[in-house]
Amino acid sequence: PDNRPTRRGTEALVLLPNGEPLQFMSIHLKSGCHEGRLDFENGHQSNDPDCLTLAVQRAPLEDWIDELTEENMPFIIAGDWNRRIDKFDLRDHFWEEIDDADPQPLDLTRYPSGILSSPCLKGTNRHFALPIDFIVTDEQANQWVDPNSLEIRNFKEADIKQFDKISDHCPVLLDLKF
Questions:
Q1: Is 121 in a helix, a strand, or coil?
Q2: Which helix (H) or strand (E) segment is 93 a member of?
Q3: Can you list the residues of the chain whose pLDDT is less than 70?
Q4: How far, in Å, CA of 33 to CA of 82, rounded?
Q5: What per-residue confidence (pLDDT) applies to 136?
Q6: Which pLDDT belongs to residue 163?
Q7: How far apart (Å, rounded) are the C-alpha atoms in residues 172 and 153?
Q8: From CA 16, how far away is CA 178, in angstroms rounded?
Q9: Which residues lie closer than 8 Å to 140 by C-beta, 6 or more apart?
């Protein structure tokens, strides 16, 4: 894998007003491997160090998801997936591996979904054609999501012009109702 440093996820356990636990994880996965297969053990080799690193990152993320599913613990994962998981008719290889319905009743939902052109930073040199930032919920946490609240908040034109450095990612917002 790539020997450049990767970012760690941050995990937080939150107790809801009714005392029920909800697990959160913030992630920032390896950039540079936005699409393509990662199943190197099945003859699909890649010399791309970014894809090799992402393949290594996928395993502990999938283990975390599977462990919480087995424990019946609702969870939300949010952040920079650095992966165009909405491309290819919603069948990205990375996504298929983590949302594989194993163990039961694993069923992940991602927000946004089906948006093939991000409104983030349109018209600037920082524009990404496809979203790479997502909020992902398991089937339990998804019951609290207000899907109509989804918003990809763009930066104000004045801020883009004023600041030399501005994030190349726009905030993804989603309301939860408990």
A1: coil
A2: helix 93-98
A3: 1-5, 39-47, 86-91, 116-118, 121-130
A4: 7
A5: 96
A6: 75
A7: 6
A8: 8
A9: 72, 73, 74, 75
Q: What is the pLDDT of residue 78?
A: 96
Beta strands, E only, 17-144: 21-28, 75-80, 109-111, 133-137
| Residue 133, both tokens | 């930032």
Q: Which of 134, 136, 37 is nearest to 94 (CA)?
A: 37
Cβ(72)–Cβ(102) below 8 Å:
no
For 25-74, write each residue's pLDDT tens digit.
999 999 888 877 776 555 555 667 888 888 889 999 999 999 999 999 99
10 Å Cβ neighbour count for 152? Answer: 17
Which residue shows structure tokens 């883009």? Answer: 160
Choose among 58, 7, 63, 64: nearest CA to 37. Answer: 58
What 8-state DSSP symbol labels residue 158? H
Question: Tell me, what's the pLDDT at 61?
Answer: 95
Query: What is the DSSP annotation of 40-60?
Result: GGGT-----HHHHHHHHHHHH
Cross-strand partners of 76:
24, 137
- Residues forming a β-bridge with 15: 21
pLDDT at 48: 78
Locus of tokens 């069948």:
91
